[in-house]
Structure formats: structure tokens, C-alpha cells
Write a structure and sequence with these properties.
mainly beta, 8-stranded antiparallel beta barrel, about 180 residues, single chain, elongated
């Protein structure tokens, strides 16, 4: 029994060192659009898209695992009496096709989507944790051994209905487009 635990620990350490050897951190900026985020069906010709920022870390250009954390202020729209946002924390599988310095990839996973709203600063504050998923794809362009430019588009959906003061119910759904700089380690 003890030798099994030691072998499992050695395997996990070997796996982690392989993952982190090909890993990276990608801070990014982007826009949320479509679905519950705005009245725009697509990213092009859309004046109501809402900015977001975040960071992904884990796999850098290859097949692997990533954690993605993002925040979007004024997700449901800006208003003097309402402050709102959405925080996403997703665990994703990334499958990339290395074609020299260009790596197209698909990404998908599950995690937390947390909308928050404050309606009239002295009144109602609501937040809701919701399980959700994201699916998308993009491309990573290597700029050298330690740097890459990465862009992607993803679709986010909750599994269950979300009810907030500014969002009256139903599943939360939106798209996100981002551009970031990957620092490989």
C-alpha cells in the first residue's frame, strides 16, 4: 500500500513537471458580446459589446490543461443606478495542432460563472454562483521560445437558470473574444 502511494506521488510529480515545462501565462483583454451580454448577435458592427480582462495559465501552444479567469464590468450594460459584472473561472482542455510557429486550437471545459448586480447602491445586491461550460477555438502565434500572441473566441453558458434583479431568469449565455500575450515557462 505504501509503495503504491509513493509510485502515485512520483507519477503526479512527473506529470506536473511535463505540464509546467510546456506551460505559460496569458494575460488578455477582450469583449463580451451576444446573448445576455448585449443586443449584438456578432462581434462585428456592434457598439454594445462589453470589455473584459483576464488570465489563462497552463498549456502554452500544445495539448493540455488550462485555467481561465475573467472579469467583465457592466456585463448587462451601464446605468447610473446599477453596477453589474460577471466573473468566470473555467477549467479547460486545450487541443492544439502545432504547425510550426502557428498553433490553431480548440478549447472547452467547465467551471463557475458568477453574475453580480447592485441595483441602487443603497438597496439590492445580488450574486449567483452558477455551474457552466465554455467551448471555443483560436490560434497561438509563436514570437520566439518564450513569447506568443494568442487570440480566441469562446461561447459561455450556465447549466442552470440564473435569476438576478437585472436578469430575470433563464440560462446565462454569451460569447467572448480575446487577444493576449503568452509568456511561456
Amino acid at each position: 500500500m505504501r509503495s503504491t502511494g509513493i509510485l502515485a506521488l512520483m507519477g503526479a510529480t512527473l506529470y506536473a513537471s511535463t505540464v509546467f515545462a510546456a506551460g505559460g501565462v496569458t494575460p488578455y483583454i477582450g469583449y463580451n458580446y451576444g446573448g445576455d451580454s448585449s443586443n449584438c448577435a456578432s462581434l462585428r458592427d456592434c457598439e454594445e459589446r462589453h470589455s473584459n480582462f483576464g488570465v489563462s495559465f497552463g498549456s502554452a501552444g500544445g495539448t493540455g490543461f488550462e485555467q481561465d479567469i475573467a472579469y467583465a464590468k457592466n456585463f448587462f450594460g451601464a446605468s447610473p443606478d446599477t453596477h453589474n459584472s460577471v466573473l468566470t473561472f473555467m477549467s479547460n482542455l486545450v487541443v492544439a495542432l502545432p504547425l510550426g510557429p502557428v498553433h490553431p486550437f480548440v478549447v472547452g471545459g467547465v467551471g463557475l460563472i458568477r453574475p453580480h448586480a447592485t441595483i441602487n447602491p443603497t438597496a439590492l445586491v445580488t450574486s449567483k454562483n452558477a455551474a457552466g461550460y465554455d467551448l471555443g477555438g483560436g490560434v497561438s502565434l509563436s514570437l520566439g521560445p518564450r513569447l506568443a500572441l494568442r487570440g480566441d473566441i469562446r461561447r459561455f453558458n450556465t447549466f442552470q437558470d440564473v435569476k438576478l434583479g437585472v436578469f430575470t431568469g433563464g440560462k446565462l449565455s454569451f460569447s467572448r473574444a480575446t487577444l493576449g500575450l503568452t509568456l511561456k515557462y
